[in-house]
Amino acid sequence: PFNKRGPKPESPLLRPAYQGSNPISDMWSLFALQTCALNIHKAVQGDDLEARQAMLLASSAAGLGFGNAGVHLCHGMSYPISSQNTSFVAPGYEQVGHPIIPHGLSVIVNAPAVFRWTAQADPKRHSRCARILEAARLGQESDVLYSPSSSSSGVSDAGEWLAEEISILCHSLDVPLGLSSFGYGVDDIPALVDGTIQQHRVTKISPRSVDRQALEHLFEQAM
After folding, report:
1. How far apart are CA 25 and CA 66, in angstroms?
2. What is the number of other CB atoms lying within 10 angstroms of the CB of residue 212?
3. How many CB atoms lie within 10 A of CB 141?
4. What is the distance between the terminal CA atoms of the chain, rounded to a whole angstrom?
5. pTM higher than the cut 0.85
6. How far apart are CA 158 and CA 87, in angstroms?
7. What is the mean pLDDT, run by run of 10 residues, along the chain of 223 residues?
């Protein structure tokens, strides 16, 4: 969070590029998550123009949300996943003519492992996101956007709850989960960690401090 960072940089020039979570970014991000959860199946699996318009709106809102707050480990880990890929070609990208893991895939593949690990830093925030996904999946009304206390159930295992909801969503959309789906194995973890550890712009705002050992664990869990 923007008000819990430290220590104070010696110079404004040394401030991180991102500010961390903040109330304004939270509003945009939660709106984006809920709009996406409610419309993504209709947009992807059918020819629903309104759903596709809603996804465009969600994309714009998400950009406004994390443009200042920033992103962290899922993105930091995604860069070496994409750049070190030697064989995987995502469906629909065959015409590119070379191996490619689109950015969205390289980010979401890490999400379950990352959120299981970061949840202890703020269980209620993770639980709030899980509840939005769950409510959309079950066709339930959700007031989580405006009533954070309504997401309190499941807080004790919020990371697992959020990871499970993300996995269910990905499976329902035929999105591959697991780095092994992209051709990676445990022998690739050291190089993937090398490619992540230098991404200070995003790793430094992780809700939990991350080091090489933590990244090795996360990549192993993401396999």
Report:
1. 6
2. 12
3. 6
4. 29
5. yes
6. 35
7. 77 80 92 95 91 96 91 95 96 94 96 96 92 91 56 68 96 93 96 94 89 96 96
